[in-house]
Specification:
By secondary structure, the chain is of the alpha+beta class. It has 3 helices and 5 strands, in the order βββαββαα.
């Protein structure tokens, strides 16, 4: 019998030479569905734009899993399709109108709406799953740190935030 459990985590990233910044809501779903790989985990990480989500996916995809006892797959989904939507850690704050009347009536999702990096892990043991997921979060921290330090959109957003804080003071 398959069991399923969801865990929602407020994730922070501390890039080198920078203060901690809250990344947002990371939804983690634990499921046991495959008898050959009974330990599985789905991690959904919302990012501000499709371009940043796609860049993270491409950066993380190049490193293959080292163990044949672990399988990993990446995809981009919309916030509405992800496990992060409706999470207890205020994922609705990322949605237009605070999450009111979301989704499309025809069920289609545009490419630009796919801003959630979804990573699915399957492993033969909990230990192998833990080791792989730890490595994933290390790599994700590096990717987000590079985006924070070098990405034009992120830098522009930080400038806007700093200017609004100065105006509010």
């Amino acid at each position: 019998m398959a069991t399923e459990r969801s865990i929602h985590i407020a994730a922070t990233v501390s890039p080198p030479h920078a203060s901690s910044h809250v990344l947002g809501c990371v939804a983690v779903k634990v499921a046991m569905l495959d008898p050959d790989f009974p330990c599985s985990l789905v991690i959904s990480i919302p990012l501000p734009t499709h371009r940043l989500a796609s860049s993270a996916l491409r950066a993380l995809q190049v490193d293959a899993e080292l163990s044949p006892l672990v399988r990993r797959s990446f995809s981009l989904v919309s916030l509405y399709e992800s496990d992060a939507y409706g999470a207890d850690c205020s994922a609705d704050a990322h949605l237009p109108n605070g999450g009111a009347s979301v989704g499309r009536s025809n069920g289609e999702t545009s490419l630009e709406e796919k801003t959630v990096l979804r990573t699915e892990y399957k492993a033969t043991t909990n230990r192998m799953l833990r080791v792989s997921v730890n490595g994933f979060f290390e790599s994700m921290g590096v990717v987000l740190g590079v985006m924070q330090e070098l990405d034009v959109d992120v830098l522009a957003e930080e400038r806007k935030l700093a200017q609004s804080q100065i105006q509010d003071a």
